[in-house]
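Sequence only, no structure available. Ideas?
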Amino acid sequence: MSCPAVPIPSDFNKDLYTPLAQADPEIQALIDRETYRQFRGLELIASENLTSLAVMEANGSVFTNKYSEGLPGARYYGGNEVVDELERLCQKRALEAFHLDPAVWGVNVQPYSGSTANFAAFTALIQPQDRIMGLNLADGGHLTHGAYTPKRNISASSIYFQSLPYQVDPATGIIDYEALEKQVQLFKPRIVICGASAYPRDWDYARLRKIADINGSYLMMDMAHISGLVAAQVQNDPFKDCDVVCTTTHKTLRGPRAGLIFFRKDKENDLEKRINDAVFPACQGGPHNNVRSLVIVRNFNLDMSLHSQTIAGVAVALKQAASPAFKEYATQVIANTRALGAELVKHNYKLQTEGSDNHLVLWDLRPLGLTGSKIEKICDMAHITLNKNSVPGDRSAATPGGVRVGTNALTSRSMREPEMRVVADFLHRAVQLGLKAQAEAGSKLLKDFVARLTGDGEAAKELEQLTKDVHAFAEKFPLPGVPRSEEIKRVE
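Reply:
I predicted one. Tokens follow.
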């Protein structure tokens, strides 16, 4: 039985019923432009993906209206009976997606992002000025794992905790576990952190567990980049050896922008309470059932931009991640990465670790005399989106020697190995015209380089043709979340 018809008001509330295109054409125009940009371009940023129509629908639901500080069954506001059911369902699906026993593992699904999840985990596990060890930023680590420079601490994790990074073996690019073991014996960290943002290989969790046990340290995994691959069981399982596992939900997991914290219930009697208290009220306010939030924290590296955190959308993505189709997707992500990497190697390019076990390759451009910034700029102009990235041995993050290339978003557009070979050829052409532009510029300054990419020079002409070829190729594939591609507006 349907609800009774209620007339839409014509008073001061009439704007609440107006569709976006009519209520705010300026914002609608930006959405149309971004949709077109994604459709005709190639998204190769390893920390991005293309989420589903169902996640987008959940992300735009009436759950955005509800404030729900606290935990299910223990809220600070009334009217949360449905939200409680939603959050419990999300927790259940999170444990199921990662094949976890609810008697052993618990999960908090409220963090606004992976950064807040990490800092909340630190807050729960240790005290200010305790010691942590994470992978060095220049070796593929993450800012929130204790990053700092000789002149300043650049992350809250290094401001509030003493940090000593570990590194990869410079000869192989693989984590130097022997050196890490020696460092742990001397530094005696309270937390050993594994996980990375630009590391193309899998992790030896059993070895890391033994290293952490030297001093009785916590072993914490930040699987933000590879969580979808872990859920699909095409990567090693961090839950067998780690005490706490954090993740974002929007990378290989292919959900909305949010964070999760998994914790062992059998580690310490009060760990669940400490984790929950660290998320709220220690590090953030009410969870985002479905809303965009601007959290302004000037000196923290937690949430300094808009993040869409949607428990409803996360729950949808987790259900999808537990499906056989998602395992096929994750398997194809790795196959695509290896195909892309193999094609680049055929062109005699240098890849860190000479390949990949996951969703990304780290491409070292230093042998060519090019910087990552220049290739990022060329690719951006050709509507190939990737990012400049430090490679081990770089002297300065300001002039990174490589680029990071991920295949998760293109795999979400149903591209496979043959398409990866085409994409690799586009990247090869971008590098070759980059060398030409640098030669035409007569200097290695970025501004002189960019100037040669417009006008009537050879490099500019080649870039124009590359861009046309990218558009023609990309528009052959559907864009997730947009069932009818013919309705996408062609707007610049």
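The longest strand covers residues 259-264.
Hope that gets you unstuck.
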